[in-house]
Amino acid sequence: MNCPKCGAQLMANATFCGACGHRLAPAATQPMNQGAHSINIDQDSRGQGRGYSYEVLHQPSFSLAVLQLQAEQAIQAEAGAMVSMSANVELQSQMKGGLFGAIKRAAGGESAFISTFTARGGPGEVTLAPGTPGDVAAIELSGQPFFVQSSSYLAGDASLSIDTKWGGAKSFFSGEGLFVLMVQGQGLLLVSSFGAIHRKRLQAGERYVVDTGHLVAWEGTTQYTLRKAASGFFRSMMSGEGIVAEFNGPGELLIQTRNLAALAGLLKPFFPSQGGGGGGFNLGG
């Protein structure tokens, strides 16, 4: 298949022409059935955007996103996500959204800065990876709002609008999920998970509860509330669960199969305390 504007060869299921950036008309589809997914994740983990192509390798445990940028084209990523890049790729870090936006990002558990990679003088390559073992999903946004847990944002098209949203008073007092990212626009969004990504499709009126530590992303049109996992403070504490998100369909959720906070809790007894006494690894008799 060729681009109707410039005639360049297109990759299968492409939504943009990688040569001229022309947005392609979506192919006609059948009405969605009960088992269909509404979040558009590239099944072959590769595709094209405006001035770049991408591929996700080494899935699902140690995923690496490889982006090929055309000359003078850019991609944005979370600060610290870069693994490698061509020597002609220019890296710039800036406080996106100004000082107030940087403060909100930092409060949400992200870096106050966002990185922009631009290929100068010719094409270039950038590889990106999250800080934890797990998967990376390449999502094609088509203008719809999309919520992402702050720690799951990896990279995206430079034209995407990213704003930090307040998660509610309950999440503040629990220390969980204080802020989430609302992403809007058209183009590529890369999200990462700790562990694998489980897709859960909700039917209209269906209610579903997810531990906030396992959330990756969900459709912006899906309604949700935050609450304690069990009724009553003592029962909630004894259950080992904190704040959960209760979703009301229709919509689709992306859930990670592992929880970083839970892993940190399991490892904590094996590390020495700040006082230097007790705990720690026993290295000898």
What does this 3D model show about the protein?
The chain has 285 residues and is mostly beta strands. The protein has a single domain (46-268), classed as 4-Layer Sandwich (Double-stranded beta-helix). It has four helices and 20 strands. It has a six-stranded antiparallel β-sheet, with no helix packed on it. Strands 12-13-10-17-20-15 form a six-stranded antiparallel β-sheet, covered by helices on one side. The longest helix is centred in the middle third of the chain and has 10 residues, at 98-107. It is globular, with a radius of gyration of 21 Å. It starts with 45 loop residues before the first strand and ends in an 18-residue tail after the last helix.
List keywords for this structure.
mainly beta; Double-stranded beta-helix; 20 strands; six-stranded antiparallel sheet
